[in-house]
C-alpha cells in the first residue's frame, strides 16, 4: 500500500516537474543583435503563451527630451517615433482619438485574439468533439448491455393523453431549432478543420454561409421554444422528496421495479433544468455575439462572481475580449447541452419502448404510463372521475 | 407527427421572418457597426 502511495506521489511530482507551466519564468534575453528590439525568442515565447518580460517594449515609448529641433529632418515628430507611438497604443499608455465611429472603434490593438483562436481551434474542438463521440459510444455500449427498456408484461392496448398539442409544439419548436443550431454550430466550429479537406474551399464557403444564416436566425425559434416549455412545465418540475427516492433507485434502469413518479420523474427534471439554465445562458451569450459590442456581459458577470466568491476575474474588458469570452462560453455551454440532449434523445426513442409516443402523437400506452409515471396516472384518473380534463 | 412537422415549419418561418423584423426595428448588427457620418474632408 505504501509502495503504491509512494509511486503515485512520485508520478505527481514528476508530472509537475516536467509541466511547462513551471518553466514560465522569463529568461534574460540578449537583444543586442536586434538593437534592443524583440527577438525571435521573444516572439516564440509569446506564441507559446509563456511568461514574457515586455518591459523592454512597454517602457520604450520615446523621450520628448531627445526631440530633434523642429528645423531638423523629422523634427516635427518630437522625441517619439511611429514605433514608440504603436508601443504606447499596445500598452494602453495613450488615449487615442479616431475619426472612425462605431462600437469598439477606439480599440486599435487587442492581444487576446491569438489565445482565443488557439483555444477555439484546439481544446474546444478536441474535448468538445471527443465528449460528443464518448457519449454516443457510451449509449451504444449501454444499449447492448441493458437493451431496450420494455413495458413489463407488454402494452395494455389502451392509451392516455400524455402531452397536449401545444406542449408537443413547444417541445418540437425547441428540439428542432436546437438540432439545427447544434449541427450548424458544429459546422462553424469544426468545418474548417474537417470539411475543407473533404469537400474543398468553395463548397465549404457556401455551406458555412448557409450555416451562419440559419444559426443566427433560427436562434429566435429556440428562444421562443425555451419560453413556451418553461411556462408550460415549470410547475411540474419543482424538485421534491419523491425525486430523491427515484434517484436512489437509479430510475429503475437496472432493477425490476419502477420507482414512483408524477408527470415528470427526477431524470426528466434534471433534463428540464439543464435545458432551461443552460438554454438561457447560451441564448444570452448568443445575443451578445449576434449584436457585436452591443451587449457586453462578462465584465459585469465577473464582477458579481468576484464579489460573491472573492475571485479575481478581470472586470475591465475591452469590447473584443467580451466577444471572445462570449464565443468560448457559448461553445462550452452548447457542448454540455448537446451531451444532455443526445442522452435525452436516446432514452426518448430507441432506448425505451413506448416513450416516443408521448411526443409523437401525445398518447401513451396506459401500462407504460403506470410503470413510469404511476402517480401522474392516478391524478389524471382522479380528475377524469370528477369530469375534469387531463393535464 | 403533424404537430412535430408544424413546429419544424414554424421554426423555419421564424428564421426567415427574424431578419426582416429586426431590420424594421433598426436592430441589424450590420447597421450598428457602420455609420453614414464618416467624412474624410
Structure description:
The complex is a heterodimer of chains A (391) and B (41). By secondary structure, chain A is mainly alpha-helical. Chain A contains 14 helices and 2 strands, in the order αααααβαααααααβαα. In chain A, helix 6 (165-194) packs antiparallel against helix 7 (196-233) and helix 7 (196-233) crosses helix 9. Chain A is elongated. The termini of chain A are far apart. The model of chain A is unreliable at 16-23 (pLDDT under 50). Helices cover 66% and strands 0% of the residues of chain B. Chain B contains 2 helices and no strands. Chain B has helices spanning 2-24, 29-32. The longest helix of chain B has 23 residues, at 2-24. The termini of chain B are far apart. At the A-B interface, helix 6 and helix 7 of A face helix 1 of B.
Task: Please name the defining characteristics of this protein.
heterodimer; A: 391 residues; mainly alpha; two-stranded antiparallel sheet; 14 helices; 2 strands; 60% helix; B: 41 residues; 2 helices; 66% helix
In which order are the strands of the major sheet of chain A placed? 1-2
Structural class of chain B: mainly alpha
Based on DSSP secondary structure assignment, what is the total number of beta strands of chain B? Answer: 0
Radius of gyration of chain A: 29 Å
Please describe the topology of this protein.
The complex is a heterodimer of chains A (391) and B (41).
Chain A lengths: L1 H16 L22 H8 L7 H4 L23 H9 L22 H34 L12 E3 L3 H30 L1 H38 L7 H8 L17 H25 L7 H12 L9 H29 L9 H4 L2 E3 H7 L1 H12 L6
Antiparallel strand pairs in A: 1-2
Helix pairs in contact in A: 5-11, 6-7, 7-9, 9-11, 13-14
Chain B lengths: L1 H23 L4 H4 L9
Amino acid at each position: 500500500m505504501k509502495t503504491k502511495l509512494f509511486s503515485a506521489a512520485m508520478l505527481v511530482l514528476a508530472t509537475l516537474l516536467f509541466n511547462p507551466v513551471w518553466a514560465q519564468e522569463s529568461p534574460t534575453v540578449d537583444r543586442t543583435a536586434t538593437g534592443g528590439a524583440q527577438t525571435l525568442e521573444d516572439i516564440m515565447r509569446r506564441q507559446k503563451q509563456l511568461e514574457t518580460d515586455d518591459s523592454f517594449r512597454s517602457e520604450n515609448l520615446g523621450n520628448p527630451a531627445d526631440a530633434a529641433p523642429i528645423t531638423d529632418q523629422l523634427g516635427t515628430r518630437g522625441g517619439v517615433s511611429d514605433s514608440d507611438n504603436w508601443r504606447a497604443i499596445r500598452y494602453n499608455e495613450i488615449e487615442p482619438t479616431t475619426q472612425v465611429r462605431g462600437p469598439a472603434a477606439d480599440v486599435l490593438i487587442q492581444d487576446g485574439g491569438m489565445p482565443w483562436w488557439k483555444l477555439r481551434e484546439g481544446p474546444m474542438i478536441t474535448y468538445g468533439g471527443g465528449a460528443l463521440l464518448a457519449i454516443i459510444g457510451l449509449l451504444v455500449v449501454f444499449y447492448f448491455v441493458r437493451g431496450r427498456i420494455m413495458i413489463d408484461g407488454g402494452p395494455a392496448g389502451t392509451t392516455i393523453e400524455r402531452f397536449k398539442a401545444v406542449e408537443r409544439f413547444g417541445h418540437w419548436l425547441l428540439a428542432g431549432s436546437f438540432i439545427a443550431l447544434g449541427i450548424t454550430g458544429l459546422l462553424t466550429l469544426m468545418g474548417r478543420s474537417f470539411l475543407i479537406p473533404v469537400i474543398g474551399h468553395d463548397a465549404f464557403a457556401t455551406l458555412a454561409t448557409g450555416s451562419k444564416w440559419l444559426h443566427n436566425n433560427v436562434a429566435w425559434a429556440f428562444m421562443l421554444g425555451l419560453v413556451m416549455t418553461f411556462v408550460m412545465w415549470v410547475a411540474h418540475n419543482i424538485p421534491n422528496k419523491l425525486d430523491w427516492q427515484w434517484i436512489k433507485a437509479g430510475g429503475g434502469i437496472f432493477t425490476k421495479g419502477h420507482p414512483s413518479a408524477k408527470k415528470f420523474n427526477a431524470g426528466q427534471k434534471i433534463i428540464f433544468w439543464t435545458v432551461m439554465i443552460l438554454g438561457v445562458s447560451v441564448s444570452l451569450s448568443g445575443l451578445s455575439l449576434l449584436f457585436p459590442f452591443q451587449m457586453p456581459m462578462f465584465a459585469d458577470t465577473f464582477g458579481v462572481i468576484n464579489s460573491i466568491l472573492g475571485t479575481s476575474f478581470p472586470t475591465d474588458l475591452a469590447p473584443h475580449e467580451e466577444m471572445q469570452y462570449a464565443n468560448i462560453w457559448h461553445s462550452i455551454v452548447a457542448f454540455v447541452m448537446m451531451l444532455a440532449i443526445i442522452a435525452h434523445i436516446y432514452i426518448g426513442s430507441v432506448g425505451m419502448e413506448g416513450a416516443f409516443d408521448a411526443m409523437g402523437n401525445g398518447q401513451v400506452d396506459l401500462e407504460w404510463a403506470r410503470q413510469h409515471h404511476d402517480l401522474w396516472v392516478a391524478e389524471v384518473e382522479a380528475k377524469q372521475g370528477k369530469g375534469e380534463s387531463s393535464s | 407527427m403533424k404537430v412535430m412537422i408544424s413546429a419544424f415549419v414554424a421554426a423555419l418561418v421564424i428564421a426567415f421572418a427574424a431578419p426582416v423584423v429586426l431590420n424594421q426595428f433598426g436592430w441589424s448588427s450590420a447597421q450598428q457597426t457602420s455609420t453614414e457620418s464618416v467624412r474624410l474632408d
